Amino acid sequence: MLAAKTLPLSSHHTETTIYPKPSRTFPCTLFPTTRTRKSRVKATSCLKLSAPEFAAKTRVQILSEALPFIQKFRGKTIVVKYGGAAMKSEALQASVIADLVLLSCVGLRIVFVHGGGPEINHWLNRLGIEPNFHNGLRVTNASTMEVVAMVLVGNVNKKLVALINKAGATAVGLSGIDGRLLMARPSPNSEKLGLVGDIASVDPSALRPLIDNYHIPVIASVAADGAGQMYNVNADTAAGELAAALGAEKLILLTDVAGILEDRDNPESLVKEIDIKGVKKMMEEGKIAGGMIPKVNCCVRSLAQGVRTTSIIDGRLEHSLLLEILTDEGAGTMITG
């Protein structure tokens, strides 16, 4: 949790400052960065503090600096898509769960959407079914679809619900099938992909009572059509469509990369903030390619449907959700309308 992030004793400390309109142009952070302002407090005053006193003062300072961000997002709906490294590592998974519970406790309305590719592959192999992909998408025949539904809805989903409940929040496990939350249609590539579906419509009415009571819906990316046929749907797309239907303040996609890079070969070239026009230009120039394209398209579509901001963040960072929501620095790339 945040209290474990004790700042090192030094002559430079950030002073407690409340910014009326937090944005990524103000140097207000939870953790020290190169953009943190130097304090006007003399070093001698810090050196007089004992270690417990210094730790306590740091915790109070962190909480006070987070206040404007809490005020900004309190009561707002935040849709988080969970996957990648944050799902594979137990330490990162615990970090994500802790972040969700903290954000829920301070008044954010969290909706948690997940996939589970590695776990699906594990169970397919155990059952002697060879995983098959076409252009990065899972080829899903009838037997594979049974495993996908079993793993996502019956295994991954319930484990996440149990972890969130254990951490102190109240989670409710659902899939896109429940309450006709997500209605699916066959993918245009269904001849090659099988039971991979696109989202035809969203009905969030089953979610609203949960969100209004600050419960955390945990949604597996499985949907069905009007005839009851189940489909494997992309979790990023599911999260984006849900965010739009709920009128969410923010959509966050957890990924295995730092975010959008100006130069794909330079991990230091992270684009902190960009608008729709800017990302479209980057795609035209070939700077955004491969697996980042569908994520960016998902964000752009969500923004076009009324979501205020979207972010593609680095799920490999501990407490990346808190860094993205409660600090000025963020943990990846924020895309605006």
From TrEMBL:
Aspartate/glutamate/uridylate kinase domain span: 76-314
Origin organism lineage: Eukaryota, Viridiplantae, Streptophyta, Embryophyta, Tracheophyta
Pathway: Amino-acid biosynthesis; L-arginine biosynthesis; N(2)-acetyl-L-ornithine from L-glutamate: step 2/4
Record protein name field: acetylglutamate kinase
GO biological process: L-arginine biosynthetic process
Molecular functions per Gene Ontology: acetylglutamate kinase activity; ATP binding
E.C. number(s) listed in UniProt: 2.7.2.8
NCBIfam families, per the entry: argB
Top enzyme class: transferase
Organism: Escallonia herrerae
HAMAP family: ArgB
GO cellular component, one term: chloroplast thylakoid
UniProtKB keywords: Amino-acid biosynthesis, Arginine biosynthesis, ATP-binding, Kinase, Nucleotide-binding, Transferase
Listed Pfam families: AA_kinase
Entry keyword annotation includes Amino-acid biosynthesis: yes
InterPro entries, alphabetized: AceGlu_kinase-like_sf, AcgluKinase_fam, ArgB, Asp/Glu/Uridylate_kinase, Glu/AcGlu_kinase, NAGK-C
